[in-house]
Description:
Layout: E1 5-11, E2 16-22, E3 27-35, E4 43-48, E5 53-58, H1 64-77, E6 87-94, E7 105-106, H2 109-117, H3 126-139, E8 145-149, H4 159-162, H5 168-173, H6 183-196, E9 205-211, E10 215-221, E11 224-228, H7 250-257, H8 263-272, H9 275-280, H10 285-293, H11 297-321, E12 326-330, H12 331-336, H13 338-345, H14 357-361, E13 368-369, E14 378-381, H15 386-402
Parallel strand pairs: 1-6, 6-8, 9-12, 12-14
Antiparallel strand pairs: 1-2, 2-3, 3-4, 4-5, 7-8, 9-10, 10-11, 13-14
This protein binds adenosine-5'-diphosphate, acetylphosphate and magnesium ion.
Amino acid sequence: MNATRVLVLNSGSSSVKYQLLDMRDRSRLAVGLVERIGEQTSRLKHTCLASGGTREQNGPIADHDAALKAVAEELSKDGLGLDSPELAAIGHRVVHGGMFFTEPTVVDEEVLTEIERLIPVAPLHNPANLTGIRTAMAMRPDLPQVAVFDTAFHTTMPESAARYAIETKIADRFRVRRYGFHGTSHAYVSRATAGLLGRAPEDVNVIVLHLGNGASASAVRGGKCVDTSMGLTPLEGLVMGTRSGDLDPAVIFHLQRVAGMSMDEIDTLLNKRSGLYGLCGDNDMREIRRRMDEGDEQARLAFEIYIHRLRKYIGAYYAVLGRVDAVAFTAGVGENADFVREAALAGLEGLGLAVDGARNAVRGDEARLISPEGARVAVAVVPTDEEMEIASQTYALVGKDDKGD
Ligand SMILES: Nc1ncnc2c1ncn2[C@@H]1O[C@H](COP(=O)(O)OP(=O)(O)O)[C@@H](O)[C@H]1O
Ligand SMILES: CC(=O)OP(=O)(O)O
Ligand SMILES: [Mg+2]
């Protein structure tokens, strides 16, 4: 097979991240990002790794369809256009796969219908993922489009972790259960953590803390997810950039009955005006750090609430796993914010958890240990690579198809 390239599209609610990879040596040919889609200040940043050139385009990009067309144009300028015969497939991150999709799947009309049916439980993500797939399909109808689901890695969760304690009849009828998200990242990072320890994933229990704008924790036993902090939707669990994470469900009744808010208003409040942003007006951890350094009490409190929730999940997953070999920090905050990692594990020496100050201060793109020499539990920073993981899964599936099995 000559076609060895995979284009990966990670369409978020207001952004598209993309990478073009050659799977023969897993090298990156081009990477880029379109952000603030739908606003006047959209920006496309494209880097061609072969030539080393970077181009930026500023100005309104109306929607995901336009964003993808702009991406295709940028790729063409480098001779890497979607019309290339070397392209084997396009891999798409799809956030919600419900109970239906447990593995990467070649997209057809039936798959599109199912992803569409799941929009109510991933309203920020699935519509963007669908547009990405449809636009790519229109450009290359002959090419396999592969959906890689955020939920897939979590389908191994036992019923005790996946079910909410509500009436079974209702839960079953409306498929109200805990699905979990960021699974591609949790899978990649838990495996890479085992690699860092020089052990097989089957032998290692890991707590993975994916701390980006959206954030989630997972408990991974022997390579399989046994619990995760996001639930029916990506709203449950940790305090996030703009999402509340866990709260008493009665808060919603209260806001509706006493504050007179509509369900849509409450939805927007909890998803877009809560979390760090709701608490202090900033969702970026760098800005929160800067404000704390200036003595800003509001930023300090937001940080403390964020850390308190994170520590609760670390404790919970320690108990879920019984034996923990490693705690791995990943994604924008987890990879870059040493002060978050330090605060998350401070005072937990009794659990075998500690962070070495000098190791924690080291910056870099490589997976690395930050626990002291000889620590009972390894603490690691493991940069996530959702795009590489999506490309690998996509290529594995397409390769398999080619051999006719
Ligand atoms: N140098 C840094 N120090 C602290 N936090 C950082 C740094 N760089 C990025 N972040 C945090 O990472 C977040 C983005 O994480 P990322 O994983 O890229 O999120 P997403 O994929 O959800 O957009 C930012 O909002 C910011 O809070
Ligand atoms: C599922 C989810 O929360 O994704 P993201 O962090 O990309 O928003
Ligand atoms: Mg992310």
